[in-house]
Write a structure and sequence with these properties.
Length: 155
């Protein structure tokens, strides 16, 4: 598996190169592969952005974590993406694991919610997310809400 260098930044701290690369990768997959929709949805300004670059500086993985209250009561992970070239290498698992760790550090003791593509429910389930809705269409793709419960406090 490729080793990635992670960058964790608020929208205003991304800089133009990181922002451009993130939007280009998102458009490459979410718009060109999955069908047209408006990817910049106004939520990016209310989120942390996790970027994973390889040793050559190429963006290979990305997700955003939306602040609690901006979309859901809980922080929510979304726009989870790996480059087409990196698929099947385990980078998706590394990306989600890193995102969960960053959420726990930013919002300790809180649950995490996602709107997952339904066919990926088992993948997210392996990180402790449980389906908490029926399927619904989001951008013409079946999705479901999933929740990773807040960690239990130890006495």
């Amino acid at each position: 598996m490729l080793r990635l260098n992670w960058t964790w930044s608020r929208f205003g701290g991304l800089g133009v190169d990181n922002l451009y690369d993130a939007l280009a990768l998102r458009c490459r997959v979410f718009v060109l592969e999955q069908g047209p929709y408006l990817d910049p949805d106004g939520i990016d300004r209310h989120a942390w952005h996790l970027l994973g670059r390889d040793a050559d500086g190429v963006l290979q993985a990305y997700l955003r974590v939306v602040d609690p209250g901006a979309r859901y009561a809980e922080p929510s992970i979304g726009r989870v993406i790996t480059s087409p070239e990196a698929r099947g290498t385990g980078l998706g698992r590394a990306l989600v694991a890193e995102g969960v760790v960053r959420c726990a550090a930013a919002w300790p003791g809180q649950a995490i919610r996602i709107s997952a593509q339904s066919h990926l429910a088992d993948f997210y389930g392996s990180f402790g997310f449980a389906r908490c809705s029926d399927d619904y269409l989001e951008d013409d793709i079946p999705h479901c809400e999933m929740l990773k419960p807040a960690p239990k406090e130890t006495p």
